[in-house]
Amino acid sequence: MTTFEDAFGHAAEASASAPGRVNLLGEHTDYQGGFVLPTAIAQRATVSLRRNGTATHRLYSANLDQRLEVPVGETGTGFAPYLTGCLELSGVRDGLDVFVRSEVPSGGLSSSAALEVATLRALRELYGLDLSDVDLALRGVQVEHEYVGVMCGVMDQMASSLADTGTMLLLDTRTLERRALPFPAGAQVVVIDSGVPRRLAESGYNERRAQVEEAARLLGVQLLRDVSDVSRTEELPDLLARRARHVITENARVQAAIGADAATFGQLMNASHASLQGDYAVSHPEVDRLVALLQAQPDTYGARMTGAGFGGAVVALVRAGQVAAVTGPALAEYGPQAAVVVP
């Protein structure tokens, strides 16, 4: 296994990590000020840093076995913008050696947010930056907007920076108010990588954001978070009505999930997937097939796609102790391209 010293010939000065996340409910609502319900996963991204005394950032990804060199002040290509964006926004003018290793699968589990938060944590350690965990999350969002080109909301970075694996993080993405909630009693979360790759910047993610922003404008509100009566979507053109209907009903589902038992929570997850598949059109046929196979298992309370969509991961809520009974038959029929990520 390649180490920082193998890559650069000396030891790191600072190192930090951050987890990926899985979102249980509240998909595509965070950029409309809505409610979300993620939890952290055990897999983490780790970033190590050292000042190299040059005017060049030397970047190495252990996962890709790829080395990039980017002059200080420039963005670079490939995986570089996730790192150099953090460096630029943090005012770094030293050339840095940056070593990245991540356990977080790409596709729906916030691998990019984990990378950004880990980088910012390492920079905070190296330079003694006066940044709270919320500050780090918001800076990570800024990196996505300004350097990566994905107009994401705040959920992923907030979850990576603040969530833990033992609770769900109920987050109001407009006010950033948050509290930890227990998982439904007698249930546990299963996350499966569908094997269908996706890239947010090359998908319809930014298009969906533009559509719901236009829907909010036509409804005369700043954010769809401010609309609770779903019948108001009838005022909109059909496409925008369907997009807005998802956001409005998804916000209601998160609020209904607070304190819900496992059966109710699972039904809300199933309804969320149907809305993402139909009204928001961000699922994928293979992901839909995997979700249906999981939903068909007797010990499954509910299942849905998770993350931005267009491929990626699936999350299911299953009866505690019955993970193998659910995933075994479902994955045997789905095929070997899928892999269980959690637990």
Automatic annotation (TrEMBL):
One Pfam family recorded for the sequence: GalKase_gal_bdg
Entry GO MF terms: galactokinase activity
Keywords in alphabetical order: ATP-binding, Carbohydrate metabolism, Galactose metabolism, Kinase, Nucleotide-binding, Transferase
Keyword Coiled coil: no
Record EC number: 2.7.1.6
Domain GHMP kinase N-terminal: 91-162
InterPro entries documented for this protein: Galactokinase, GalKase_N, GHMP_kinase_C_dom, GHMP_kinase_C_sf, GHMP_kinase_N_dom, GHMP_knse_ATP-bd_CS, Mevalonate/galactokinase, Ribosomal_Su5_D2-typ_SF
Enzyme superclass (EC): transferase
Top-rank taxon: Bacteria
Domain Galactokinase N-terminal: 3-50
UniProt keyword annotation of Transferase present: yes
Residue stretches making up the GHMP kinase C-terminal domain: 261-324
Family: Belongs to the GHMP kinase family. GalK subfamily.
Protein name (database record): Galactokinase
Upper lineage: Bacteria, Thermotogati, Deinococcota, Deinococci, Deinococcales
